[in-house]
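does this look right to u?? OAK version
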Amino acid sequence: MNDNLTNGNQIQIEDDRTGIDVQTLKRAFSDNLFYALGKFPEIATKNDFYMALAYTVRDRLLRRWLNSQETYLKQDVKIVCYFSAEYLIGPQLGKNLINLAIVEQVRQAVEECGLNLDDLIEQEEEPGLGNGGLGRLAACYMDSMATLNIPAIGYGIRYEFGIFDQEICEGWQVEITDKWLRYGNPWEIPRTEATVEVGLGGYTESFYDENNRYRVRWLPDRTVKGVPYDTPILGYKTNTANTLRLWKAEAPESFNFQAFNVGDYYGAVNEKTYSENITKVLYPNDEPIQGKQLRLEQQFFFVSCSLQDMIRLHLATQENLDNFGELFAAQLNDTHPSIGVAELMRLLMDVHDYEWEQAWEITQKTFAYTNHTLLPEALEKWSLGLFGSLLPRHLEIIYEINRRFLHEIRTHYPNDVSKLSNFSLIDETGEKYVRMAHLACVGSHAINGVADLHTQLLKQDVLRGFYELFPEKFTNKTNGVTPRRWIVLSNPELTELITSKIGDNWITHLEELQQLEPFADDPNFRNAWRQMKQQVKTRLARRIEKRCGITVDPNYSLFDIHVKRIHEYKRQHLNVLHIITLYNRIKKNPNIDIVPRTFIFGGKAAPSYFMAKLIIKLINSVGEVVNNDPDVRGRLKVVFIPDYNVTNSQPVYPAADLSEQISTAGKEASGTGNMKFSLNGALTIGTLDGANVEIRQQVGEENFFLFGLKAEEVSQMKSQGYNPWEFYSSNEALREVIDQISSGLFSPEESNLFKPLVDSLLYHDEYMLLADYQSYIDCQDRVSEAFRDWDNWTRMSILNTARMGIFSSDRAIREYCQDIWNVQAVPVKLEDYVQAKG
Ligand code: OAK
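got this back:
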């Protein structure tokens, strides 16, 4: 025991597991190396040091974590349960140091041990338990809920293999299994005592109970155990530490032993493998998932585990489940967890004896649904055959929900039978399917989109009928990102510069960035800003050199960055058309005065998405030609950063001069990378899509490079019969670019390589690249001209940061709390551990 600290009226005793002075941290670090890792410094690997430091930091989270849980339990507070099949929480060490406010002490402590903190932070392998936007949003929201002292549990799946690691071989994406658990995960604690059982398959039967009431029971033909693994999510400089509870599937022991006893060893092992497969691997986005039984098993598994867990927690302090919806707000992160509607109904009726009406009231009160996509192919549906064989009781419940719902529809639209098939939870137009979005809509009290435009399009189009029926359920909740990770952790240089002018309150009150506005006209501040930008660009340039072996110029070249999942609607290939256009201008006139640009790409393509993989190959092939052409003289560089994930993205956002947000209008629900860039002072070139619309409103149209068709123009042009060939044949520069790609200029070894891409553009062009080409090129020319005026560019950059405060995830979470969850903040008191022990 050492320092005695006062906390309110309480005396706290700091010990080796809680103390935060340099000497205590050093001692704790050595202790953990010795006792938790079984190493002493002379034989420790870098990973051992990382683990020892992670345990040292985790110790310092624990009191807050336990105090938070105890506070929630004792006070009957309403808890947000975020249901998400994906969480992309990123590396934890750096973030936890910031939130505990112990970065400098820890830096010194490890330095005194002859180590470098940044090296240790880099050692961490992130849990890639998500694909992209939706999973990262869940992580930002967990951070904000903890920071705002909102009681919350994040429920999800502990995939053994997360999103694949990406390597680039000869320009192609190669997928490598993500073995994130191979060296252990110091941040999680398994809670085997809270294990639950989940049934699958089998059949149902009806019976009369002792009160002669008609009942149904489900007799599954197999069961799987769900074991929770908990990770603390600490808020920024607060005592609240919420829980991310991820479920791992295990085989039930009883079954194993039975088979083992009768000598069927391999049968037992098979069964075990089968059960454990449920949480083996994350499904990549953009793959057709219909018919993938394992995916439906995953969804049901984690939702059932989570609802059972909530019921257990509830009944620990409450007599019955009557007020379940008053004490829990369950948010469905897209439709992946929407089977929860039927599962909660089943648990309430079949297990806890509720009648339909009351169960339905509780269910609707509990759930709310967020939609994250407008792409029709991403709307989930499950064939009745598959659904019924895996979840026979849930199918019955869904039929009954549908029967009652369609009855309402008939009353509401007495003379319109077509409404019945439009609204039905069952798609009967061909093979029969359960429509998960419809289930989510009827089973929830609130439905929201994730940007103004997106919500508008949901109301007009994808969920139009539901909007007409219950307009009061619909709200918009524009996404946000956490400034702790996306500014403080990723961009220490910017953090320092902002704080030197306006103090550090902006970290939790991001709207205060507004106070930077007057400095946009201060030449000294502009200089400092420009220097800061140069510094972070240099940092990225070094990484690129190391990672890709490509030298780029951080001083004079405009960093033009396009990072996100690779998808045709996100139009990375439109960017490529621009690169080739510039290349052609140089080839025609090698002495042309051109603004030097470094085009930086990053992102993964779904393994079976052929066109997306071909786009990656195209980027690298064009890079190969452009980067090595002596006429170019280094004025254009093309870089593809491999294995884009949270860790690798952190140095990227700060270094951008220009952020590419160029999706076809009406396709991107919101985007969140767009926010990270602009917050870090990048200017955006973008379409009026997703949250771009609101970003432009905020930063001012003169500080945003707008191009392209609007969403309604896209639909109009399509309905009038869009013909891409007309654009191709009437635009000489465009024709040249397309002809070069198809003639094999960038694929000399295989001239037809990019034919599928070219054909798709010329004869189909679903995402309207050719229609937007000229507008994009003109806009890029305006970007280049603007970049020549460094002083004004810097001014625009400062104004972008200053006006982006509204895109904090704290703002978004406050809106969810007020408008959807009806949840209040609950401050947590830091109790002394010795006292807490009693
Ligand atoms: C993934 C699978 C199914 C449905 C949606 C997604 C998804 O990742 N959507 C993305 O969600 C982000 C967070 O709301 C948005 O910013 C992206 O625009 C959207 O594509």
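The chain has two domains: 79-91+126-477, 483-818. idk if thats expected tbh
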